[in-house]
Every structure is written in structure tokens, then in C-alpha cells.
Amino acid sequence: MVRFKHRYLLCELVSDDPRCRLSLDDRVLSSLVRDTIARVHGTFGAAACSIGFAVRYLNAYTGIVLLRCRKEFYQLVWSALPFITYLENKGHRYPCFFNTLHVGVCKVETFHKLLTAVTHMPGTIRTCQKFLIQYNRRQLLILLQNCTDEGEREAIQKSVTRSCLLEKEEESGEEAAEAME
């Protein structure tokens, strides 16, 4: 049996229009990326990237997208992302672009080429998740530093604390359910 290796691209969909992110759907995003690959790299690129390509994670609120593709062709997907300039969904067209946050790569020869753009390059979903947690923490610190007044800072801290408490309640509820079984 042959094991197919995949690489993951962690991206952020950036748009001025908040309706753009709320209208995100994994099928729409997948077809948009496939169409862009076909437009940029032609028939070969479309065929090479269609096997094993999937949108593994999509958060419509933050615009975070995790794309999976075959190891041999991740550079084709990665190089096509800057050519996505709009998102079309349900008859609406929203201007946007992809900001690549993290690329799961293990090749040594591409390491030197990518060093200027990406600083961390392992190749699993788990490492992408770890990177995303660190990225969110950095973004939160930047957000707190850019607060103009104390009320805004307290509102952000309260929101973060509330979301942490909700996660702990969900975890304790799951543990209690497992203990009862």
C-alpha cells in the first residue's frame, strides 16, 4: 500500500467587506482555488492539484483557511493564491486576497527560498494548529497594545476571559458525561 504525503497551507482571507468572510463556504473556496490554479498553471496544474486537494478547516469569523494538497504540488497551489482577488458567492462579488501564514514543508532545498517569507516549516496539521495558536496570541497582544482607552482594553479582556471560561465549561461537561458512562 502506498502512502500519499500531503502538505498544508494555513492562510488568512483578508477583505474590507465583512460580508465576504460570512459568505464563505468550503465548496465555494475549493472551487475558487481550483479555478485559479487552472487559470495560472493551465491544465497540468489543475490536474496535478485536483488530486488530494481539500479545504480542511475554514473559520468564517476569522477568515482562517487550512488547505491540504499533495506534497509534490504544494508549490503550484501556493503560487496561485496571490492571483485570487475576489470571492464570488450567491451572485455577489467581494474583493479579497489570501495572506499565507504558514506552509507545512519539509524539503531542505526549498527552505532557503522560503526563508524570507515563512519562518516555521513542519508538515502536519498539528504543527499548523500550534502555529495558529501562537499567531492568535500575537494578534491579541497587538490588539491590546493598540487600544486607545481603558474601556476598550477591558472589553477585549472580558471577551477573551468569557471565551476561555466557555471552553473550560464545555471540557468539564464532556468529562462529566464520560464519567457517567
Report a brief summary of the structure:
With 181 residues, this protein is α+β, with helices and mostly antiparallel strands. It contains six helices and six strands, in the order βααββαβββααα. The termini are far apart.
Topology:
Layout (H helix, E strand, L loop, with lengths): L5 E9 L3 H5 L3 H25 L3 E6 L4 E7 L3 H7 L5 E4 L2 E4 L1 E7 L7 H4 L10 H21 L4 H31 L1
Antiparallel strand pairs: 1-3, 1-6, 2-3, 4-5
Description:
Helix 2 crosses helix 3. It is built from six helices and six strands; from the N terminus they run E-H-H-E-E-H-E-E-E-H-H-H. About 9% of the residues have low confidence. It is 51% helix and 20% strand. The N and C termini lie far apart (38 Å). With 181 residues, the protein is of the alpha+beta class.
Beta content comes to 15-25%
Class per helix and strand makeup: alpha+beta
Order of helices and strands: EHHEEHEEEHHH
Helix proportion range: 40-55%
| Inertia-based shape | globular
List unreliable stretches of 5+ residues. Answer: 106-121
Spatial order of the strands forming the largest sheet? 2-3-1-6
Distance between the termini: 38 Å
Outline the biggest β-sheet. 4 strands, antiparallel
State Rg.
19 Å
* Number of H/I helices: 6
Let me know the number of strands: 6
Average pLDDT confidence is 77
Which key terms come to mind for this protein?
single chain; 181 residues; alpha+beta; four-stranded antiparallel beta sheet; two-stranded antiparallel ribbon; 6 helices; 6 strands; 51% helix; globular
